[in-house]
Structures are given as C-alpha cells and as structure tokens.
Amino acid sequence: MGFSETSLSGTVPSEMGRLQSLESLVIGHSKIGGTVPSELGNLSSLIWLVFESTNFSGSFPSEVFLLSNLRALQVFECPGLKTESVLHGVVRNMHKIERLGLGRGKPGRFISVPTEIARLTNMLSLSLEDFQLNGTLPSEVGLLTKLTRLRLHENAIVGALPTEFLKFSGLNILDIGSNQMEGKLEQSLFSQLTQLDVFSINGNWFSGSLPTEVGLLSSLRKLQLHNTNLSGTLPTELQLMDKLTSLVVMNTSLSGSIPSKLSSAILPPQELKCFGGECYKVATTSLSACHGTRLCGCSCDPCPV
Predict the structure, then answer these.
(1) What InterPro entries does its record include (predicted)?
(2) Residue 97 is part of which domain span?
C-alpha cells in the first residue's frame, strides 16, 4: 500500500493495524501527519515500511520493532518525528532486517553506533545520513559482511576507518563524507574492496597519500576526496579505472596530473575544460578540479589561483 507523492493529508487511522496481510506500507512526499499509530505493530506480515518527507510528529512507536517479518525500514526527512529510539530498537529486536535507512529527521540528541549492531548479520544496506551520530565506529560493524551499501554521510563520527571494513568484500557504496574522521588510507582498503562503485570520504581529516592500489577499483564511478588533508601525487594508476565518471579533489594538497587516458575516456576532448562552476587550482601543478562532480583534465583552461 502506497501513499507517495499525493495531495492526501490527515492522519493514519489506527484501524490500519487490522490489515494483517499487508506486506508493504509506503508513506512519502505527502501532507499526512499526526502521530504514527502504535497499531502498526499489529501488521505481522509487513515486510517493507517507509516514511519519507511526511508531517509525522511525536515518538516512533516501539511496537513496530516487534514486526519479525520486516526486512526494510526507512524513516527519512520526517523532521517532526522523534527517531532517537529507532536505531537501538532495530538493533535489539529486528535481527532479520536487510535494509535500514534513517536520517534528516529529529534524533533529538547525539547517539553512537551500538556494538550490538553486530546482530544484524543479514544487513545489505545501512544508511544513517545526517542522523547526529558521533563517536567512533565500533569494530563490530565489520561483522555485517553482507553489506553492499554503507552511507554515513553528514554526521560527527571521529577516529579512523576500522580495519574490519576490509571484510566488506561485496561493498558497492562507501560514503562517509562530512564527518570528522582521520588517519591514512591504507593500501589494503583498496586491494580488498574491489567491488566499490562509489567511494566518498570528502569533508574529513584523512591525511597522507592516495595509495596506488586505488587503480584496483575497476568498477569505481565516483571518487570524492575533496576537503581533506590528502597530499602527495595523484597516482597514475587512476588510468586503470575505465568506469570513473566523477573525480573531485578540490581543497586538498594533492598534486600531479590527471592521466590523459582517463580524461579522454570520461569526457570528449571538446569538454576538457573547467565548466559548470567555480574552478580551483590544486597545489602548483596542472591538476585542477571543478566545483561539483565533473572532472577536469590536465588540458583545462588555466584556473584562477
């Protein structure tokens, strides 16, 4: 059952809890609001529950955490809904869940990722964006070995990337941008996570060089390194990444040139110029990057210093 992108308003009736055979409930981009009825905890067949861009208010009902068949839960952009209990409620009760998305809401306070998250061994996609997370990432996250997507963008997470991340051999998306993480990017990170499609660490304090092993990420489309303390020469192994369509390196101390093979593969020669926004000069070399997500090669027009 879906109530998405409609002009419907009002509240969700408590009688909806009588729909024992309901498997999917999606309420998004609508004016539906009020409190979320606790009777939703009676939907014993529910597999998929999504609240996105709604006017819900009050607390998230704990009864939902008892839905043993639920495989996907998303609560996103519901600013009036108090969601501080959701992460812990899921971790303690919903061990079969495969997809969890929480963010851009009203957690109410900073929270840390609980070590008990290790119980969610069926997790395929974990998205906790702009969710007021702080502290370090527990090593227990590495036990979620089935993960294909991990999005922790825009929080206050500190510390280094846990070495346990190397167990995510099937990971396609790793987005930890806009946090306060630090440390060096280890060679093993790229030699193990070879299925990555998106690697985003922008807006952190990572330092050191970009390992040459980055060239092993043959499936990578987006590499976002901007606003970090990375330094050194951009490795020529980037030219091995034939599928790369977005390389963002502005506001770093990286130097060198974008390999011509990579530049010509991504954009036609006539488009190899700084376009689509403000352009930056990186260090004192020919490497430049546009503000945004498009790539500029070493044949760019001169950038303002």
Answers:
(1) Leu-rich_rpt, LRR_dom_sf, RLP29
(2) 1-109
Query: Do 171 and 230 belong to one domain?
Result: yes
Three-state SS for 61? coil
Residues 155 and 240 in one domain: yes
Boundary of a domain, candidates 91, 109, 127: 109
Q: Which residues are CB-neighbours of 270 under 8 A, at least 6 positions away?
A: none
Measured from the Cβ of residue 21, the count of other Cβ atoms closer than 10 Å reads 8
Alpha helix (H) residue ranges in the chain: 86-93, 187-192, 260-266
Tell me: do 103 and 186 sit in the same domain.
Answer: no
Residues 125, 271: one domain? Answer: yes
Type of residue at 274? C
- Tokens representing residue 42 in the block: 């009676």
Residue 85 and residue 182 in one domain: no
116-174 confidence digits (pLDDT tens): 999 999 999 999 999 999 999 999 999 999 999 999 999 999 999 999 998 999 999 99
Task: Kindly report, residue by residue over 4-31, the tens digit of the pLDDT.
Answer: 555 566 889 999 999 999 999 999 888 8
- Tens-place pLDDT, residues 158-207: 999 999 998 999 999 999 999 999 999 999 999 999 999 999 999 999 99
DSSP 255: E
Distance, CA of 293 to CA of 54 (rounded, Å) = 30
CB 164 within 8 A of CB 188: no
Q: Which candidate, 197, 196, 195, 191, places its Cα nearest to that of 221? A: 197
